[in-house]
């Protein structure tokens, strides 16, 4: 018995040791926060040349550490040229983002908790007259009705691009039975236009999701590599459109594409200044452009239906790629339209954003974090987290426990002070739990201009594509409640409304394609029921 107990203890010790090693590998900073422009201690005796050489060497070392971590996490990704470039870009982003902080995961969790409650405190304190509301004219309202109907029609195409995994997720009890027969059946002659693994399962789910026939599909690609996204090309006879739907993030390769967040120039024949976009998404759009144009896929589609128009759709990463693809194809197809569902904010330069308003519509649901996600917004979020945790002296476990209860069941938000005034910034010496170095800079109140991510060439401010339709929740449905129980209001929104990341229980769930689809179902049903109400009617929708 003693030997058995001793063996169990040894086994548990190995588990603890392994968990500790993994944690150290991903969390420990071997450079000790030395990569900030003003390392701890702020040595002043070094001349500028020696200081610059030291800083450059430390940055290179930090990037190497992060590149090793990224490659370890993505060890199953094929190591081609694109993957190596993505590893380098991702490591550069992480090493730059974390170079000026000294936070542990529990600090970040506490910061999110405090920000969530601070945000709700501010929202509840706003008086109705403080909320500025824009009342659109009748033509704008009719245009909104038409575009909401278009979004409702094209959203299933964007969802279909995810293939069988999303279909099974949306139909957990019946999905496998519905497409299982097609997964096991061999129909090589009917799958000539399909490429990629498990194509028969994907094709079966796409047919079920869109309700189209075999003959309506021009090309289906589930080829998935870094900077190379899956996409489908179909004929939509109801809207008389050739629809190209691009898949969103669903693999490690897609995550690396997302995290290649530098900006790069987009070569367009249109005379625009400052044509830059998200590097990873731009590379993915170029890949699909080559496939559609150089491989003759679009020519084949328009040879079947020459009178149809081109419509590009996508969700999340696919929304960004579809928007950029529309910009690239507009000269050859002047009537092109794009519908971007839950697109990333950090996508287009200001000039491209303004240019895209003529032919791209983005749809954003509720508190979805992705349309608010960009490098500059992440830098703003980091500064907000550092401010709130530096100004709170409560024990961390109390903050986290209260935050979990508040997130799950609601209640009164914590009234802890979460902003530093000038006097507190000077006097503050004991931040959260006595952590002495949440910031590796010489002052806990460093200015935003000191940020390493505020580089105007590498990480300039980027914007979402096109005009924006925001689906706002009108009635609560619980903290995480079912979308079918919630009611939403569609309205035109400005990109500035998504200039800050919001913390809340639905910031992730509002991004899911099935939740977006359900919300659109509810909005269209409500607007149809109210068609006789003043200001709600409009002409039948068409792809305008």
Automatic annotation (TrEMBL):
Catalytic activity entry: a 1,2-diacyl-sn-glycerol + H2O = a 2-acylglycerol + a fatty acid + H(+)
Record bears the keyword Plastid: no
Annotated keywords: Calcium, Cell membrane, Hydrolase, Lipid degradation, Lipid metabolism, Membrane, Metal-binding, Phosphoprotein, Transmembrane, Transmembrane helix
Broad class of where this protein is predominantly found: membrane
Gene3D superfamilies: alpha/beta hydrolase
Cofactor: Ca(2+)
CDD domains listed in its UniProt record: Lipase_3 (cd00519)
Pfam families registered for this protein in UniProt: Lipase_3 (PF01764)
Residues in Fungal lipase-type domain copies: 243-376
Enzyme Commission designation: 3.1.1.116
Keyword Hydrolase tagged: yes
Subcellular location: Cell membrane
InterPro entries assigned to the protein according to its UniProt record, in alphabetical order: AB_hydrolase_fold, DAG_Lipase-Related, Fungal_lipase-type
Topology versus the membrane: Multi-pass membrane protein
Family: Belongs to the AB hydrolase superfamily. Lipase family.
PANTHER family: DIACYLGLYCEROL LIPASE HOMOLOG-RELATED, DIACYLGLYCEROL LIPASE-BETA
UniProt protein name: sn-1-specific diacylglycerol lipase
Gene symbol of the encoding locus: Daglb
């Amino acid at each position: 018995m003693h030997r058995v107990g001793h063996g169990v203890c040894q086994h548990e010790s190995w588990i603890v040791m392994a968990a500790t090693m993994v944690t150290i590998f991903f969390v420990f900073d071997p450079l000790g926060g030395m990569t900030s422009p003003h390392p701890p201690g702020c040595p002043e005796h070094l001349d500028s040349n020696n200081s610059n050489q030291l800083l450059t060497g430390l940055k290179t070392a930090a990037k190497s550490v992060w590149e090793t971590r990224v490659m370890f996490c993505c060890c199953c990704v094929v190591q081609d040229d694109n993957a190596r470039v993505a590893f380098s870009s991702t490591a550069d982003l992480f090493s730059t983002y974390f170079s000026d902080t000294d936070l542990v995961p529990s600090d970040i969790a506490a910061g999110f908790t405090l920000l969530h409650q601070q945000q709700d405190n501010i929202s509840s304190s706003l008086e109705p007259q403080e909320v500025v509301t824009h009342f659109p004219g009748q033509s704008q309202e009719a245009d909104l009705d038409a575009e909401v109907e278009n979004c409702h029609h094209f959203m299933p195409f964007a969802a279909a691009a995810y293939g069988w995994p999303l279909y099974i997720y949306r139909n957990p009890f019946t999905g496998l039975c519905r497409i299982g027969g097609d997964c096991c059946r061999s129909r090589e002659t009917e799958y000539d236009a399909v490429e990629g693994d498990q194509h028969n399962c994907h094709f079966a789910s796409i047919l079920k999701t869109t309700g189209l026939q075999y003959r309506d599909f021009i090309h289906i690609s589930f080829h998935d590599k870094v900077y190379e996204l899956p996409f489908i090309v179909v004929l939509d006879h109801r809207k008389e459109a050739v629809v190209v739907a691009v898949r969103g993030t669903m693999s490690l390769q897609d995550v690396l594409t997302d995290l290649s967040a530098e900006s790069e120039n987009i070569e367009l024949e249109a005379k625009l200044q400052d044509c830059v976009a998200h590097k990873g998404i731009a590379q993915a759009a170029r890949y699909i452009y080559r496939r559609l144009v150089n491989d003759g896929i679009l020519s084949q589609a328009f040879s079947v239906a020459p009178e149809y128009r081109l419509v590009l759709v996508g969700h999340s990463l696919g929304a960004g790629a579809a928007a950029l693809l529309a910009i690239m194809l507009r000269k050859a197809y002047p009537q092109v339209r794009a519908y971007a569902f839950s697109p990333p904010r950090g996508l287009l330069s200001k000039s491209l954003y303004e240019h895209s308003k003529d032919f791209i519509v983005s749809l954003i649901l509720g508190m979805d974090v992705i349309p608010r996600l960009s490098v500059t917004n992440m830098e703003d979020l980091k500064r907000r987290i550092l401010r709130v945790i530096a100004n709170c002296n409560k024990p961390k476990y109390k903050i986290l426990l209260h935050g979990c209860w508040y997130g799950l069941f609601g209640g009164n938000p914590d009234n802890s002070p979460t902003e530093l005034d000038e006097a507190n910034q000077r006097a503050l010496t004991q931040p959260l739990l006595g952590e002495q170095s949440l910031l590796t800079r010489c002052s806990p109140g460093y200015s935003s201009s000191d940020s390493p991510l505020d580089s105007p060439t590498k990480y300039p401010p980027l914007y979402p594509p096109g005009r924006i339709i925001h689906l706002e929740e009108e009635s609560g449905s619980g903290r995480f409640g079912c979308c079918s129980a919630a009611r939403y209001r569609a309205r035109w929104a400005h990109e500035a409304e998504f200039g800050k990341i919001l913390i809340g229980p639905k910031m992730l769930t509002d991004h899911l394609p099935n939740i977006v689809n359900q919300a659109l179902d509810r909005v269209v049903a409500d607007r149809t029921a109210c068609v006789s109400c003043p200001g709600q009617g409009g002409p039948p929708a068409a792809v305008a």
